[in-house]
Input
Amino acid sequence: MQITKDSFEEIIEGQTKLMVPKKSITDTVPPKEPAFFNPKASLSRDFSIIAYGAFLKNFEGPKIFLEGLSGIGARGLRVVNELQMDNVIINDLNPSALELAKYSGKLNNLENVEFSEEEICRFFSKYSRKGCRGSIVDIDPFGSSAQFFDCGLRATMHGGILSCTATDLQVLNGLFQNACMRKYGGVPVRTQYGNEIAIRLILGCLRMVAGRLGLEIIPLYVESNFHYYRTYVKVYKKPDQEENLGYIIHCKNCGHRKMVFEKINSCELCGSQNNIGGKLWIGKIFDKNFVEQMILKIPELTVNKICEKDLRKCLVESEMPGMYFTLDEIASKMKSSPPKLDDAINKLQNNGFIASPTSFGPTGFRTNANVKEIITVFSD
Output
């Protein structure tokens, strides 16, 4: 493949030069040929750089980054160029994508980077033995990453990070429940907080696969976007000691929601039948200390200003209850216009409840008040 100025363009993302197909910049939908590059995913890559930088700051051990599905290598090249790594290994099955990745590597004068052209699980299997595993393992596919959880976990060293992207949003948000059960081992409930349920289904599936391998996962940070979901978990080579799989119960009548270990068929507030989602992860999805470290890392990096604003929401909500509410949802039940988010949170706090905004949606908020208590507070 010839890399010419007619078909390719050099851009800078973060602090890294990338040679990308011109049509990926100009077309509404980036083409898959000759190699896929999504410029709109730059924010996701920014968050990755922040998360990996925060992790590496206190990590003692070989700093090895394994990228299973690299495309043109944008994420992996940024990792090796913008963070302190011992070795970065970028893998993809598309030779044209790897050729662009190698070209970009030369643009940045990178040395401690290797390139691999293999099927992802074959690639990870080479690094699944003790002493060979990655401290950071990245899986960023089209569609679901669930089929790669097993090999990804095996390739992650004790105390390392596994990060996974999912773009099969219709499956995770409840349009194809049978497909979701097959892929993730649980079913969603179609609600206004469906993105959080989706994230918890991904984490639940990861937890089930990890449990089978005698591993423990601890969620550090999750990201919800209109086009993808992304999870970052720490992996430990020991069995999980806590029970963190369960169900979401959601009452379609009154809107009550709750995370539980066992199914509850009737709503405890109005007696109506509950919709039940799961099995899925019902533990924490943010590690407060890790999010703090991410925020502290930002001044050292070149990332979008949105990142810090979003992470500060994550920090506040890290200790809050699961399953957020939205202003529109409550306003619809009250048959009134929604209050401003700050006013809503202040009202709840002034009435003795805990409340915070959420990174999962601009009008979302978390609270320990149930839906009836929220309506009562907002009605005053």
Summary: The chain has 14 helices and 15 strands.
